[in-house]
Amino acid sequence: METVTKKAKNTIKSEDLTISFEVDKTPGEIFKAINNVRKWWSGEIDGETDKLGDVWTYSYKDIHRSKQKITELIPNIKVVWHVIDSYLSFIEDKEEWNGTDIVFAIAKKGDKTEVRFTHVGLVPAIACYGECAPAWDFYINNSLRNLIINGKGDPNKKE
Questions:
Q1: pTM reported for the whole predicted model
Q2: I need a surface site. Which of 40, 89, 91, 121 has the fewest CB within 10 A?
Q3: Strand partners, 73
């Protein structure tokens, strides 16, 4: 069995899950929306999610729990959450997200602003990819995007 290194170290590789979109909003509006995690990610969130060094936990039923630390916070440019601890009930390696990084990059592209999400370490070779990639696609392309555009996320995906 092939071993996949999960220690991301914030170095993005082509196989890492990446989702991007462009909107007619300022980098500041996007940065604010990303950091307002409760408005676009379902489940229970405990702790602050908008300051460098903040540690917060996320839980959704008995399916997913994780603890993130904000390791990079560059206003209007970049947000990085480092996954300190995780539990995913639906795969064999319940701690598969441990050591991965969740990166949001914000950049002006002409008259639009690009949001580029990358879960560094979430690659097709690991078990969670098949279920986590569509979930992230929903949260980034629908819930976060709607929060940025309309001021209202859709954090509770139909179950």
A1: 0.89
A2: 89
A3: 79
Are 80 and 102 in contact by the 8 Å Cβ rule? The answer is yes
CATH 3.40.190.170 assigned to 17-150: no
Each residue of 24-38: pLDDT tens digit? 999 999 999 999 999
- For residue range 55-86, list pLDDT tens digits in order: 999 999 999 999 999 999 999 999 999 999 99
Coil, helix or strand for 75?
A: coil
Residues 6+ apart with CB under 8 A from 9: 101, 120
φ/ψ region of 10 (left if φ > 0, alpha if ψ in -120 to 50, else beta) reads left
Strand segments (E) across 75-111: 78-88, 101-109
